[in-house]
Amino acid sequence: MSKYKMDLDYITIGLDISVEELHGIIMEADIFIGNDSAGPDEKIEAYLKKSQCLQALEEYGNSSEFVEKALEIQPDMPEVLVQKGIIIDENCKYSEARAVYTRAIQLKPDYAYAYYNRGKSFTFENKFEDAVKDYRKAIELKPDYVPSYIFCGMVFNLYNESEKAVNVFNQAIQIAPNYAVSYRMRGNSYSLLRHFEEAITDFTKAIEIDGRDVSDYINRGNAYTAKGEIAYSAKFENTEETLKDYNKALEDFNKAQQLAPNSFDVYFNRGYILFCIEKKSKDIPDYSKAITDYSIAVEIAENDEDIQSDSNYAAVYRNRGTVFIANGNNTEAIADLTKAIKIDPNDAFSYFWRAKVFYAQGKRKEGDIDWSMAKQLDKSALNTGIDPNIFWNNINE
To answer: Cβ(352)–Cβ(371) under 8 Å?
Structure first.
C-alpha cells in the first residue's frame, strides 16, 4: 500500500518511512497538484503531504510554498496551521509559532500534533515546564505518538530529572520496540545517571537497529570511557579492567571516524581516550596520536561557527594543552591553555593547569595568579592538585 494513502498525520507519526518513500509521496502529491480536475480537498491533502515530506527532509524553505497554497484554500484548517507554525519555528520566531499552534488547538482541541509542536517551541526557548505540559497533553490525546515521549524525556534530561526521562523512554520503547531513537535517548539518560552498563546496553541496541548514526558509537565510547575510569578509581587502580573498557571505547571512536571522518566530536573524544590508554599502559607513553587527534579537532573547530559557540571549543584547547604538559611540551601547553582561557575566561581547570606549568618553569608570580583564579572560579578544580607552596618547594629544592 502506498504511504500516500495513509492518514494525513502518518507522515509525521510513522517511524518506518524511508527517504525513498518520502520522495515517492512527493511524486504522488505532484500528480494531484498538477491535476486541474482535482477537488479542493484533494489539493489541500496534496499540498500538506508534500509540505510534510519536505519538512521531514529538512527542506523547510521549499515546504513554505505549499503551506501557503493550502492556506489560500482553507485558512483555518488546523493541520495547515501546524505546518505553518513549524516553518515559523525553523526561523526561530518561537512566540509567533506558538500563537499559530494555539490557534490550531482552538480550532481542534483534541489535535495532539499541535500540542506536540507547541511543546517543541517551548523547548527551543528553555520553557521546560510549559513544554512538558504540552507533551503530556499530546500523549494523553494520542498515546501511540512516540515523538511526544522522546521530546518529553529530552526535556527531563535538560533539567536534571533523568530518572523521569528513563520512565518516559520506557513507555516509548513499549510502543515501538524497534525504534532506535528511544534506546539512544534512554542511553543518554542512563549516562547522566552514571549507570554506564545500562547506557552501553541501550547504545548497543540502537546500533543493532540502525548502525548508521555516528552519535551511538560516540556515546557508547564515552560510556565505556567513564566505566573504565570508575574501575580504575574504585577497584584499587584496576588497570587491566580499565584498559579493557578504554580499548572498547577506542573501537567505537574508530568506527565513528569511519562514518563521519570530519566530525569534531570523533577526534575530540578519541584524542582523550588515546591519551588515557597511553598514560595507563606504557612505561614510556607516546602521546603523539592523541595530540594529532586534538589538532584535527582544533582545525575543524576553527572553521565551524557552531562548534565555536559550544563549551567543547575551549575544552579542546585545554585538553590538548594537558597532553602537551604530559609530553613535556610546556611552551605549546601554555599557548593552548592561554587560548582556552581567552575563549572561556571562567574555565577554572585551564587556570589550574597553566599554573602548574608556570610553577614548573619557575614563574612563581604567574603561577600564583592562575592558581588564585582557579580557586576563585571553582574550588573543585584544585581537588586533583596540591598546595601551591608545597609544589613550588618540591620543584625548587
So the answer is: yes
The three-state secondary structure class of 378 is coil
CA–CA gap between residue 67 and residue 64 (Å, rounded): 5
- Quick one: DSSP state of residue 126? T
Mean pLDDT of 54-68: 88
Average pLDDT over residues 137-149: 95
Place of cell 588515557: 276
272 vs 396: CA distance, rounded Å: 31
Rounded CA separation 176/1 (Å): 21
In terms of pTM, does the model score above 0.85?
yes
- Give the residue-averaged pLDDT of 160-171: 97
* CA separation for the pair 388, 396 (Å, rounded): 12
Q: Nearest Cα to 160, choosing from 192, 128, 185? A: 192
Distance set, CA 328 to CA 168, 268, 287, 318 (Å) = 49, 21, 10, 15
Cα dihedral angle (368, 374, 375, 379), rounded to 10 degrees? -150
Asked if 47 contacts 67 with a C-beta cutoff of 8 angstroms, the reply is yes
Which comes out higher in pLDDT, residue 103 or 377?
103
Q: Assess contact for 333 and 357: CB atoms under 8 A.
A: yes
The DSSP H or E segment spanning 28 is helix 19-33
**Residue 2 to residue 64: CA distance in whole angstroms:** 24
Q: Which residue has the cell 512527493?
A: 26
Angle in degrees, CA 49, 50, 56, rounded to 5: 90
Which residue type is seen at 80? V
The tens digit of pLDDT for each residue in 77-108 reads: 999 999 999 999 999 999 999 999 999 999 99
C-alpha cell, 354 = 597553566
**Residue 139 in contact with residue 7, Cβ under 8 Å?**
no
d(CA 104, CA 82): 7
